[in-house]
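Structure in, sequence out. Go:
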């Protein structure tokens, strides 16, 4: 069901309709050096992944923050950096998390180190599919596998939507804040990730630095480049994200 030649396959994606892991033949080649403005996040995730590969204690990681700021790209770059050291990635959609335990059973005894990658992970108020994720993060009666980590990205720090009505049972007693059960449950999910990395939209200078990096192999007047990049950003609500910089490159590179 999950037979893959992992020696030559660095990444796979779970396809629920066929209940298979589909090998990814063409992997995004992004490197750590291409990611600008997230030096701290790179350092932390690389160190955590290196410890994992070396069999040292390592944490499941939650990368959260603004859209387009490099969360998913960093995880892809980490794979490219360590894939020759037996690191592999399995991507799974949030909707398929109910199958996660079976996937883990199929790989927990292999010699490779696996990152299970959940992109854009967040849950609606009545969605309980995150309970399967909790089991993997903490283990159950069966100890959590030593060759598997969860790396997830999200726009929300606590992963689950929060509503004012949920605070009804929250109270302060003897100076201590006591959350209601529903709020406590949601906070406990993100707490199971030992490494939190936050991502924010950078300054205009950060944006220009990313643009410059994309155009590093082109001869172009930098003042003109920045002027056009600023106009492009303004048309997209003033976004200064790495995603916006890449979109600008795709738009402007053929006009040089």
């Amino acid at each position: 069901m999950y037979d893959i030649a992992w020696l030559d396959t660095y990444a796979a994606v779970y396809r629920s309709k066929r209940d298979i892991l589909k090998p990814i033949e063409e992997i995004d080649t992004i490197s750590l050096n291409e990611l600008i403005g997230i030096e701290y996040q790179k350092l932390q995730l690389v160190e955590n992944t290196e410890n994992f590969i070396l069999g040292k204690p390592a944490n499941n990681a939650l990368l959260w923050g603004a859209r387009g700021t490099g969360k998913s790209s960093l995880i892809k770059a980490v794979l490219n950096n360590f894939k020759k050291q037996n690191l592999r990635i399995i991507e799974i959609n949030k909707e398929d998390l109910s199958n996660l335990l079976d996937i883990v059973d199929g790989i927990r005894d292999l010699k490779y180190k696996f990152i299970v990658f959940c992109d854009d992970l967040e849950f609606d108020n009545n969605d309980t599919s995150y309970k399967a994720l909790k089991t993997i993060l903490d283990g159950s009666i069966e100890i959590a596998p030593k060759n598997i980590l969860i790396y997830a990205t999200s726009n929300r720090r606590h992963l689950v939507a929060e509503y004012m009505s949920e605070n009804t049972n929250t109270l302060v007693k003897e100076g201590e804040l006591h959350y209601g059960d529903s709020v406590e449950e949601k906070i406990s999910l993100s707490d199971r990730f030992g490494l939190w990395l936050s991502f924010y939209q950078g300054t205009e200078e950060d944006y220009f630095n990313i643009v410059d990096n994309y155009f590093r192999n082109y001869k172009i007047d930098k003042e003109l480049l920045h002027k056009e990049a600023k106009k492009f950003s303004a048309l997209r609500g003033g976004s200064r994200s790495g995603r916006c910089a890449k979109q600008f490159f795709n738009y402007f590179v053929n006009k040089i």
